[in-house]
Specification:
The structure is a homodimer. Chain A is of the alpha/beta class. In chain A, 41% of the residues lie in helices and 17% in strands. In chain A, helix 1 links the parallel strand 1 (2-6) and strand 2. In chain A, helix 1 (11-22) crosses helix 7, helix 4 (87-106) packs parallel to helix 5 (142-159) and helix 8 (249-260) crosses helix 12. Chain A starts with a strand and ends with a helix. The A-B interface holds A 87, 124-127, 133-140, 142, 145-146, 148-149, 152-153, 155-156, 159-160, 236-237 and B 87, 124-127, 133-140, 142, 145-146, 148-149, 152-153, 155-156, 159-160, 236-237.
Chain lengths: 317, 317
Amino acid sequence: MKILVTGGAGFLGSRLIRALLDGKGPMPRVDKVVSADLAACPVKDARVESRVGSIADPLFVAAAVDADVDVIYHLAAVLSGQSEGEFDIGMQINVDATRALLEACRHLAKPPRLIFTSSLAVFGGPMPEVVPEDLVLMPQSSYGAEKAIGELLVGEYTRKGFVDGIVCRLPTISVRPGKPNSAASSFVSGIIREPLAGVPSECPVPVDTRLWISSPDLAVKNLVRAGALDGARLGLRRTLNLPGICVTAAEMLDSLERLGGKPARALVSLTDVPRIAAIVCSWPGAFDVSRPLALGFEADQSFDSIVKQYMEGLATA
Amino acid sequence: MKILVTGGAGFLGSRLIRALLDGKGPMPRVDKVVSADLAACPVKDARVESRVGSIADPLFVAAAVDADVDVIYHLAAVLSGQSEGEFDIGMQINVDATRALLEACRHLAKPPRLIFTSSLAVFGGPMPEVVPEDLVLMPQSSYGAEKAIGELLVGEYTRKGFVDGIVCRLPTISVRPGKPNSAASSFVSGIIREPLAGVPSECPVPVDTRLWISSPDLAVKNLVRAGALDGARLGLRRTLNLPGICVTAAEMLDSLERLGGKPARALVSLTDVPRIAAIVCSWPGAFDVSRPLALGFEADQSFDSIVKQYMEGLATA
């Protein structure tokens, strides 16, 4: 089994590569992983080959796709904050590079399984409390529009038999270690991570804002499952809303106080940032995930369990 | 008022230009119409300027968009049959040229109103008898996927304020005069037009297939209305399913027999063509059009009235 991961040097990409190599999930034995990213993949393993370059360059994309690749995870993307501010770069990376990748797959002898990570940002406008699988996409951000176009491209290339694609819409990942990033949802990790490190943090949305969340571990586990899934079980609907849990910002801060103490909670200030709130509050807070659950995908137990997972990670790091 | 019509030499485009120039609809007085198409616009009027070139050429597209254009109708497209057979050409015209047009509009001092004609081919998969406005798009044809991507582009460029876009999903137009075209739905005109001219014709889908139909006159009238519509009345939902009537192929053939006589009906043979049926039968048969009707858009009275309109057109031609 040979796997390509675009964005393989990133937070999620490198964790995914570790999980693919550890061989515990449903994926057959992995012999080689190619990481295509702007930087080398940090995973130290003889089976990992880093190819360093820009996914915006179609020649680099074509060179990243080996003729015998079995599974491709396309994680490389410009995040929501940057996409909104730099329209052309968002289109170039989130749309054009996705199309270039699909084109590189199109003429392979065996169409590879391709997992495209999408986002709940494809939704927007009026929507029910719990979003069903057949709700129209009405993105209210450039990132969401670009991901929605990527989903259609993956769907069409799959229908034509050019690839064997599955779209996985990821919940917002929390708690991400490290530094804030350019995603509008960066605070969803920041309001836990920073206070636990004794650093002040701001919650830029109203505290009753519902968020749809997955821990990094479970997001990675679900992506591994998607890579190994029998496509015939999906029928025409090749897009999956990966399971998450629905919590409000207030409930997240309650978890922080329970597990990190009152001083940690006191480091978070509530500061409405309309630019962020306009994007994040247009996203759904909960999904009907009965189909993905029946397919074996999993959700976290609670936000407390997510915070504990993060704190244990800190302790063993 | 200055208007650009891409596809202005085509059947719908030239009819639209005539309607815009006759000044009877809600559109303010039209001083000039630029037709951008592979051929010169057949409308003889001093206010019409033909610019001849390929919409696949971004330089031609940029040259077609004058700085003072008020309204753009983007009708140029590769139809469903050809898009399915020639994947790259479909993507180039239906996706890339649409994006090039939006880019040409992006830096104008005044964002023009842009009407993008889309199609019920954006739908597919399981769907209710009557399709609501918030149903997910799940195209089952290249044409449908390309139009769905075009819709997202128009939505995003509108949200960013680059254009003032409205997407009009047209019903299948029947009865088109002239010759069969490369649309999978070409037979929807053919099974009426050909027998009325004494020519045999084939119905390639099961006779109980539901079709969502508009006469050419009403489709044009609704497009004029869309060009003049106050965008604020649309809210976030910039896509309209234009009104049509729902008829089965059998009901169409009944109309043919009533108005054209038994000999005409006898010229239509029922010949299942799986390639055509697979596309057409994936389309919705009826839509909830309460919102467009409330906005002043109109539907035909009956399929008999549509056939009569066509026969009167023949008589006066």
